[in-house]
């Protein structure tokens, strides 16, 4: 796939997602919307709109379980190039110290699975009548456990629009591969998401 076609598809996709998100946000905060208490919201769905420019997709869903606890899941995918990619799925339990689930400061415990595919092609040139070339490919799947610190806002008259920032770390477990792209003891994570509350 040419660089031009990949760039065109990326820009088109980012533009479509941004249009849908911001159109919904503006509609949710229109002058006719009546004020709704954020505490009545039961779930939020968020995604990182900025990561799309790097062909990285990341999103979370979070559901209130108690006044101070939520449960949810997060997914991420990064198509690094035509041969290498990374994806992860995580389950999350999030504690809100202020006992206002879905709002404010929270700390989460995460458990999940990460998969990375690494492929490389090489050519060592010609030696007489012999040309040495080939490729190697390895797909690695490893479990992970981590933690995350976040701050989340539910804003607007209808308490519909959500913004969240956060950072954390996760540790990989399991057997390492020969060319393991997940061969790191600790992997940092970050969230800069926007979305909607329901």
Task: Please tag this protein with its features.
Porin, mainly beta, 198 residues, eight-stranded antiparallel barrel, single chain
Please describe the biggest sheet, giving its number of strands, its sense, and whether it closes into a barrel. Answer: 8 strands, antiparallel, barrel
Number of strands: 8
Gyration radius, in Å? 21 Å
Coarse structural class = mainly beta
Provide the number of structural domains: 1
Residue stretches low in confidence (pLDDT < 50, at least 5 long) are none
DSSP strand content = over 45%
Widest sheet: strand ordering: 1-2-3-4-5-6-7-8
Q: List SSEs in N-to-C order.
A: HEEEEEEEE
Q: Please state the second-level CATH architecture.
A: Beta Barrel
The overall pLDDT average reads 80
Distance linking N and C termini: 39 Å
Supply the CATH class. Mainly Beta
| Residue share in helix | 10-25%
CATH topology-level fold name: Porin
Number of separate helices: 1
What would the principal axes of the Cα set say about the shape? elongated
